[in-house]
Amino acid sequence: METKGSLVSYALVLLFLVLLVAGINAGEASVVWEKAITICLSCIGVG
User: Fold this and answer.
1) Mind listing the pLDDT tens digit for each residue in 2-29?
2) In the Cβ-directed half-sphere of 11, how many Cα atoms lie within 13 Å?
3) Quick check: helix, strand or coil at residue 47?
């Protein structure tokens, strides 16, 4: 029998995966990627 902590862990992983897929489907991955590139370029003084 699994412990209650194990069930909570599995539920959180499942929630993470659902939200990850929802974010990718909404196009948020490209928005985050563009912002990350902008921040990195400004940190090294290029952008």
Assistant:
1) 688 899 999 999 999 999 999 999 999 8
2) 7
3) coil
Measure the CA–CA gap between 27 and 8, rounded to whole angstroms: 29
Answer for the pair 47, 41: CB distance below 8 angstroms, yes or no.
yes
Check residue 44 and report its DSSP letter: T
What Å distances lie between residue 6 and 13, 17, 19, CA to CA?
11, 17, 20
CA dist 38 and 42 (Å) reads: 6
Regarding pTM above 0.70, the answer is no
**The residue to which tokens 């029998």 are assigned:** 1
Is the Cβ–Cβ distance between 13 and 7 less than 8 Å? no
